[in-house]
Design goal:
21% strand, 5 strands, 5-stranded mixed beta sheet, single chain, Ubiquitin-like (UB roll), 118 residues
Length: 118
């Protein structure tokens, strides 16, 4: 059994435990930023986990510290590179933040304005 991750506005993908939200977004082709390469050194993979957060690993101190640098942090904020599927089965719903969309467009100039113009 796999866990389904739904990226609001971009589709869904079934993944195995151990998969990060960033890895799932990249596999799906969802525009989640990752300026640091996914090593928890920036906040460009900032997402909102709108449901299914209990299926993910707990937030560790390092992730919490980096989230302090993010814009519009909410109770459901997570870093996609640090949030990994921990439990098999179920659905996780994710909204990619504007900050992350802008970072993705900066990292991929061929997509500038494609996602933030929505």
């Amino acid at each position: 059994m796999a866990t389904t991750i739904r990226f609001k506005g971009y589709g869904e993908i079934a993944v195995a435990p151990g998969t990060s939200l960033l890895q799932a977004a990249q596999s799906l082709g969802a525009p989640e930023g990752y300026a640091c390469g996914g090593v928890c050194a920036c906040s460009t993979c900032h997402v909102y986990v709108t449901s299914g957060g209990s299926l993910l690993t707990e937030m560790e101190d390092e992730e919490n510290d980096i989230l302090d640098k993010a814009f519009d942090v909410r109770a459901t904020s997570r870093l996609g590179c640090q949030s990994k599927v921990e439990k098999d089965g179920g659905v996780i719903e994710v909204e990619i933040t504007r900050e992350s969309l802008e970072a993705f467009e900066n990292e991929h100039p061929e997509h500038r304005g494609k996602f933030t113009a929505r």
